[in-house]
Amino acid sequence: MPGMPRNTFLAIAIVLAIAAAVAGAWLAANLGAPQPPEQARVLTTPRPVPAVPAIDQAGQPFGPEALRGRWTMVFFGFTHCPDICPATLQVLAGARQLLDDLPPEEMPAVVMISVDPGRDTPERLAEYVPFFHPEFRGVHVPAANLAELTRVFGAAYAYSPAGDDSYTVDHTASLFLVDPQARVAAVFPTPHTAAGVASDLRRIIELEK
Amino acid sequence: MRLIVLAAAALLAACAPDQDAPPAATSAAPAASSAAAAPAVTGAWVRQVPPAARMTAGYLQITNPGSEPLVIVGAESPLFNAVEVHGTEMVDGMARMRLQDSVTVAPGDTVSFEPGGLHLMLMQAVETIPSEGEIPLALLLADGSRIDFTAPVGQPAQ
Ligand SMILES: [Cu+2]
Q: The complex's ipTM?
């Protein structure tokens, strides 16, 4: 480069080198190795879902056998819940839509396990849960077996009086991802957005490939 | 054991005095002055729920342009036999929904009723819970007045 001062030439060379390094790093990060989820926490030791008596809204047994072979998002909720439960099911429906391009075998199933088995019969769950997405299912676990199941997920629930003759249920609002080996594999803490849940689901599924 | 502790904690929380207790009537502003700057309800909506649902929730923002605190002590709707002001709070990842005795909007402030927080709990629908259209609602204030408004039934924007 005749006429160009040596310093200027050096400066341009350095700038170009930095730009190339940045571009290389960006490419590696975005096109190369799969990335870890941003909000969800992947368990270092996945926990097998125990076999407890449970049925889904159609009366089909729900347990490790039913969970094997595909990813499943699990939410603990109840139908007498006007705020956080429908809001979460709505977020899951939004996430499901954002994942529409996934091949069927990678598309996570979505289940709401009722923490209110006394009021949430399978019939009632069938009238409630699929409203948010036709493929979403409600699961009924007998009261006597519910604690054993929630313990493995690391979820909790408690009954609290509301009004004269009613009650509400305090419950863990996190979402749980069960892997195709029927193990609790990741926890999605609140707050949830459809975009956040969908993006982390994609990343976890990609990581496990 | 864990459940018992949780249940006990929940009961304690339910019985604890509300931190937003109505302030004592310390000032006696002339009624005429508050009429100049009327409180405004904006962005109200009621969650669309499955036909099987027994209850739903209403959300809104309320602004208090006045010089006195605005104290909401209740709510009502001609379409529901029971309407309560509720708050959902997250405690150690657990969602807890509790009746609020009152909600105070300080002068110049806006309070949001939004998913995962404050909401109007709409229960005991007179007929069935509407799946569309507008729901008439009213906030009941500590001074005996009310704010009437309507809220469309829908889903939140994602
Ligand atoms: Cu409520």
A: 0.75
